[in-house]
Amino acid sequence: MSADRLSPLVLAADESNDRRQGTPRRGTGFLTEPFRLGTTPSSTVGPYLAIGLTWADGPDVVAEGTPGAIWLRGRVFDGNGDLVPDGMIETWQADPDGRFDHPDDPRGAVATPGFRGVGRSHTVEPAGEYAVRTLKPGRLPDGEGGLQAPHVDVSVFARGLLDRLVTRIYFADEAEANAEDAVLRSLPDDASRATLIARPSADGYVLDIHLQACAAKGMDETVFFAV
Amino acid sequence: MTGTTPRAPRPASDSALTLPRYLREPADRRTPLDYAGYKSTGLRAPLRTPVDLPHRLTEVTGPVLGEDLVTAADADLTLREGGEAQGQRIIVYGRVLDSDGRPVPHALVEVWQANAAGRYRHVVDNWPAPLDPYFDGLGRVVTDDLGRYEFTTIKPGAYPWGNHHNAWRPAHIHFSLFGQAFTQRLVTQMYFPDDPLFGQDPIFNSMPTTARHRAVSRFDLERTQPNWALAFQWDIVLRGRDQTPFETDDDGDVA
C-alpha cells in the first residue's frame, strides 16, 4: 500500500487524531484500495515440454476430412536465424462464421460442429516447424463499430522464453478486410504488418515466426503483442 | 433508410451486453522475457517492445477444454506402466483463482516433471541419473467447481544444467493452465519451500522479488497422509477481470 493510494479519510487525518498522519486507521474494517491477489509469475516451458504438452490430436482444430479444412504451417526462428526445435505454438480462433465456442461471446456461442477453436503444435518434429489443421476464420466485430479481419491468435512457448509470446496470423488474400482491421492499422508500417500476414500455399497458408530479427539472413522480428 | 420509421424499443437484454476486461499485471511484477542470467533468452527474447493489444472477442474468449482429455488415472503420476514409481510420494493440491479471488472452475491443469533422481524421460536429457520405468512425469487434472485441483506424484530431484558454473535447478514441477480466456493462459513452475538452490538459479531469480514467493508451495502437515505421502499446497492466481460495457447496435449485434 503506497502513500499516494491511501483513502481520503486517512489522508485528511491531522494532529487532532490519535495516530500518525498517513497511516491507516486501525480497526475500521475498510480497505483503502481494491483487494487483489498477486498473480502467479510465468516461467519457461523448458526443453522437455513435449513430455507434458503433447496431444495426439493437438494440431487438429478440426478433424481430418472436414470439408474446407486448411493447414496453417510455418517455422520458428531465433536471432541467429536458426530454427527453434524445442518450442510450441498454440492457436485460438473464431469459426468461419466469426463465432467462438465460449460462454463469454455475447452474440451467443454458435460454433461450427466439431470445431475446437484451439490448436497446439510443438516444433520438435519436424524440427522448428509447426502445423495446425483448421478452418479459415470469418470476420468478427472489433467492438468499436468495425469488423476485424479474419485472424488467429497465437501463443509461442519455448525454452528460453520466460513468458509466452503473443502474435496473430492474418491472411494475404483478405486485402480489403486487412486494410480495415484496427490492429493491423495500429502498426507503424507495412514491414511490421507483413510479419503477421500468411501467404497462401498448396494446402493452406504459411507464416514463419521470428523471435528476433536476423539482419544477416534478411529476417525481420515478428510483431508481438502485450495482452 | 427511410429515416422516419420509429425504431422498436431495444430489448432490455441488449443493453446489458458486456465483454469482460482482463486486468494486466504491471511489468515490474511480471517475469521479464530478457533475463541475462538465463543464457537461452539471449537469442530468443524479442528485442522490440510488444504492441498493446486491446482485449477484443478473441482475447476474452479461450479454449474451454479438459474433461474429454483427462481420466482419473492422469492425476496419479506414481502408478504408470503397471508399476510403482521410486521416490518420496507427495500430494500436490491447491486452488486456481483469479486475482479477484474468484475460483477458476473446469480449468485444464497439465503438469510435467523430472523423476526422483532429477531426470526427465526425454531423449535430450542425458544427465547420468537413473530413469524410472514406472514414472513418465506427466499428469493432468481438471479443477472442480471451486477451482480445486489435486494430484499424487513423486518429489522431483534437483539436476545440473549447463547454464553457468555448477548450475543446478531447484526441484520443481512445470504447470500449464488455460483459465477461461486467452488472456489468462499461464505456464509456470512450482517450487518446494526452503530449497537451498534458489540463490543460484537464474530461472527462479528471473521472477520479480515481490512475486517469487508465489511460485513456492507450502508444506502441509495436515494434508499429509500418515505412512503414505507428504503434502504440499500451492494456489495459482490467474489474471482477474473487470466488467466493461460493450456497445451494441439497435439490432442487438455487437457493433
UniProtKB/TrEMBL annotation, chain A:
Keyword Flavoprotein on entry: no
Intradiol ring-cleavage dioxygenases domain sequence ranges: 69-200
Chain residue ranges for the region called Disordered: 1-37
EC number(s) on file: 1.13.11.3
InterPro entries on file: Intradiol_dOase_C, Intradiol_dOase_core, Intradiol_RC_Dioxygenase, Protocat_dOase_a
Record keywords, A-Z: Dioxygenase, Oxidoreductase
Keyword flag Hydrolase: no
Molecular function GO terms recorded: ferric iron binding; protocatechuate 3,4-dioxygenase activity
Pfam families: Dioxygenase_C (PF00775)
Top-level division of the source organism's lineage: Bacteria
Family as reported in the entry's similarity comment: Belongs to the intradiol ring-cleavage dioxygenase family.
UniProt protein name: Protocatechuate 3,4-dioxygenase alpha subunit
Organism of origin: Modestobacter marinus
From TrEMBL, chain B:
Residue ranges of the region described as Disordered: 1-24
GO MF term set: ferric iron binding; protocatechuate 3,4-dioxygenase activity
InterPro entries in alphabetical order: Intradiol_dOase_C (IPR000627), Intradiol_dOase_core (IPR015889), Intradiol_RC_Dioxygenase (IPR050770), Protocat_dOase_b (IPR012785)
Domain Intradiol ring-cleavage dioxygenases: 92-120
Database matches in PROSITE patterns: INTRADIOL_DIOXYGENAS
Gene Ontology biological-process entries: 3,4-dihydroxybenzoate catabolic process
KW Oxidoreductase (keyword) present: yes
Keyword terms of this UniProt record: Dioxygenase, Oxidoreductase
EC number annotated for this UniProt entry: 1.13.11.3
Catalytic EC class: oxidoreductase
Family stated for the protein in its record: Belongs to the intradiol ring-cleavage dioxygenase family.
Name of this protein: Protocatechuate 3,4-dioxygenase beta subunit
Gene name as annotated: pcaH
